[in-house]
Amino acid sequence: MLRKTWYAVCREGEIVARTTPHQVIVHGEPLVLWADSQGNVSVHPAACPHRGCDLGLGRVESGELVCPFHGWRFDMEGRCVKVPANTVRQPVPSGARLKLYPTVRKWGWVWVYTENGYSTKVHGATVPSLLSFPEFEHKNWKYEWFEARWHAHFSRVVESVLDISHLPFVHPETTGQSVDPQVKGLSYQWEEANGQQSLRIYPRPFAPSHPLEPPVEWGREPNPTEGRTEMQLMFPNQWIIRTPMGDGHWMCTYLTFTPEDMQTTRIYGAVIRNFDPSLDWLTQLHLEHTKFVMEQDRRIVESLRPLIAPFEIQKEFHVPSDAPGLRYRSMLKQEWMKEQIATSEDERFS
User: Fold this and answer.
1) 125 or 301: which carries more pLDDT confidence?
2) Which DSSP category does 79 fall into?
3) Right CATH for 134-208+222-335 from 1.20.1050.10, 3.90.380.10, 1.10.1240.10, 3.10.180.10
4) What is residue 202's predicted lDDT score, i.e. its pLDDT?
5) Strand ranges across the sheet with 187-193
C-alpha cells in the first residue's frame, strides 16, 4: 500500500463543529481527527505521548484537544500547551508533541496525506496537491455521497473496478445484462500529464452499444470527446465511470479507496449528474443501483486469494482481457518499490 498518496478518511460533517474527535484507521494505524471553531483540521496518531492513552476518547475544547487520562492539552500544531498536574514553574516537556499528517477538506471529504506523518508546517516536507476529476469542479452538478467497507486488500478492490470481463457473471441483471462474455477488443490507454498518471478504459465494443452513444468503427481508438461511456482511474486510488445520457448530459459514479489495514478497504463514493438536480428519485435510483452493484462485487472480491494481488504475475494465469488490471498492478509495484528504496535511504542517513 502506498503512503505518498492522499486518502479520503471521512465526511467533513463528522469532524467540523464537533466537541469530540473522530477516529479512523489508515495503514493499520489509528488516527484522530478534530477541528477548531474555524474549521481547521488536525490529524495525528491516536496515542497520547504521555502514557499512550487513546486521544479519540478525549474532547475538543477552546481549539485544543484534551486527553481524557491526565488532561494534557494539544493545539492544532500538535504541541502540548498545558499539563494540568504541573506547577507554574514546571515546564511542559519540550518533546511532548503529536506527529501531524497533512490534511485538506475537499469535495465533501477530509483527506490525509500519509507519508511520514509530519505536516509541512512541522517537517518542511513537500506534499503534492490533491487532484481529482473535473466533475468535482463544476458547481452545477448534483452529488450524493456514500461509503462502504470491504474486507479485502486495497490492491484487489482497486483492480476489481478495472475488470470488464466479470460483468456478465457477477452482474447479469444490471451492468452485465446481455453482455457478450467474449472480449473482442477492449480499448484502454495509459496517460500522464502534469505528473499525474491515469488509466482510461472504454468498455466497448464487446458490450452492446449504449443507445445514446455514437457508433465507433471496429478497431478505431475511441475519443473521449465523442461522448462515449468510459472509466478512468487516477492513479492510485480515484476512479470514475461516465455514462452519456444525451444532449450533453452525464451520469457518473465516483469511488476513492482508502486502505484501513491489510484486510480492509474503505470506499468513499458519490453518484453525480449534470442535469435535473431537483429529481430526488433519480438520485436515489442511481444510488441504490450503485450500492446493489457494489454489493455483488464485494462478496466476490472478499473471496479472492491470495489476499494481496501478487506482484509476480506468473503466480496467476492471465488473458488479454486482464490487461488494464495488470497495467495497474505493474504501476503499483513500481511506485511501491520506489517508496521502499526512499524509506531505506532515509533510515540509513537519519
Assistant:
1) 301
2) B
3) 3.90.380.10
4) 82
5) 142-150, 264-273, 249-261, 238-246, 230-234, 196-202, 187-193
Residue 99 corresponds to which amino acid?
A: K
SS3 for 274? coil
> Using CA of residue 211, residue 212, residue 213, residue 214, what is the dihedral sign?
positive
Instruction: Give the CATH number of domain 6-123; options: 2.102.10.10, 1.10.10.10, 2.40.160.40, 3.40.50.1820.
Output: 2.102.10.10
Distances (CA, A) of 57 to 63, 67, 159, 160, 276: 16, 8, 36, 36, 43
Contact (Cβ atoms closer than 8 angstroms) between residue 273 and residue 282: yes
Measured CA to CA, the distance from residue 110 to residue 122 in angstroms comes to 20
* pTM of the complete model beyond 0.85: yes
Per-residue CA distances from 67 to 19, 50, 72, 264 (Å): 13, 9, 5, 28
Q: From edge to edge, which strands make up the β-sheet containing 59-61?
A: 59-61, 64-66, 73-74, 80-82
Find cell 471521512 and name the residue: 10
- Is the dihedral angle over the CA atoms 129, 130, 132, 137 positive or is it negative? negative
Question: Distance (Å, rounded) from C-alpha 4 to C-alpha 14?
Answer: 24
- Distance, in Å, from the CA atom of 106 to the CA atom of 169, rounded to the nearest integer, reads 36
Name the pLDDT band for 113 (thresholds 50, 70, 90): very high
Average of pLDDT values for 15-30? 92
Per-residue pLDDT, averaged over 279-293, amounts to 95
Is pLDDT of 32 > 90? yes
pLDDT above 90 for 182: no
Are the C-beta atoms of residues 222 and 210 closer than 8 Å to each other? Answer: no
DSSP string of 230-256, one letter each residue: EEEEETTTEEEEEEEEETTEEEEEEEE
Of 80, 79, 59, nearest to 68 by C-alpha is 59
State residue 122 phi and psi, 5-degree precision: -90, -45
C-alpha cell, 260: 484501513
